[in-house]
Amino acid sequence: MNIDVIATALSSRGFATVEDALPIELLARLEHACHDTAAVPFVPAATGRAAGREPRASIRGDVISWLNDANDADHAYLDLMEGLRVSLNQHLYLGLFAFQGHYAIYEAGAHYDKHLDSLAGQRNRLLSTVIYLDSGWALADGGELLLYRADEPAAIARILPRPGLMVLFLSEEFPHEVLAATRARRSIAGWFSGRPAATREPSQRS
């Protein structure tokens, strides 16, 4: 990935798109892992906070499985994102502290309503990322990611989930939604968090 291009896009408009973001071999391994639902435990994604957090398919219809550092493909992806974290901090001084992510599968017809990834004032998510895994995605398949600005009703970007495409955007600034697709759609969603207020230790990958 070209860090200079990503940093310039993030600083100028708040989001970046990167074609062919991963080595082909790693992309294939991640796609295979996301298809292997017998070996990788997927559960319905939840919405809400604390005790009120529960699956609500009418709002969010994906199933997820958190990345596992003990898995070789997941480990390789987490290493890549750690390198990205360090580079972006050097270029933009974002204060990115840790990364976490999960596989996400949206079956045909599933969607995710417009939302923000971050909790206001908590720096729990500063930079959101998604990498698309499905090969041979066509415009007619749908499943686009729509990015908004908080003060504008119309989407400012409509991004087709092409294989190997990575999208990065500032979590606190961009409400977004996932449109329904006509076929199953697979990706890895992830977030870089800020440093917790009481933490003084060097960055740890989570």
Provide key terms for this protein.
single chain, 206 residues, alpha+beta, seven-stranded antiparallel β-sheet, four-stranded antiparallel β-sheet, 3 helices, 21% helix
| Shape annotation | globular
**Helix percentage range:** 10-25%
Largest sheet: 7 strands, antiparallel
Mean residue pLDDT: 92
Number of strands: 11
- What is the tally of helical segments? 3
Detail the poorly predicted runs.
none
Order of the strands making up the biggest sheet:
1-9-6-11-4-3-2
How much strand?
Answer: 25-35%
How far is it from the N-terminal to the C-terminal residue, by CA? 22 Å
Q: Report the order of strands and helices.
A: HEHEEHEEEEEEEE
- Gyration radius over CA: 16 Å
Helix/strand/pairing category: alpha+beta
Concise synopsis of the structure shown:
Helices cover 21% and strands 27% of the residues.
Describe this entry's structure for a reader.
There is one protein chain. The protein is 21% helix and 27% strand. With 206 residues, it is α+β, with helices and mostly antiparallel strands. It contains three helices and eleven strands; from the N terminus they run H-E-H-E-E-H-E-E-E-E-E-E-E-E. The chain has helices at 3-13, 24-35, 72-92; strands at residues 15-18, 43-44, 63-66, 96-106, 112-115, 127-132, 145-147, 157-159, 166-170, 176-178, 185-194. The longest helix is centred in the middle third of the chain and has 21 residues, at 72-92. Strands 1-9-6-11-4-3-2 form a seven-stranded antiparallel beta sheet. A four-stranded antiparallel beta sheet has the order 5-10-7-8, with no helix packed on it. Helix 2 crosses helix 3 (72-92). The relative contact order is 0.23.
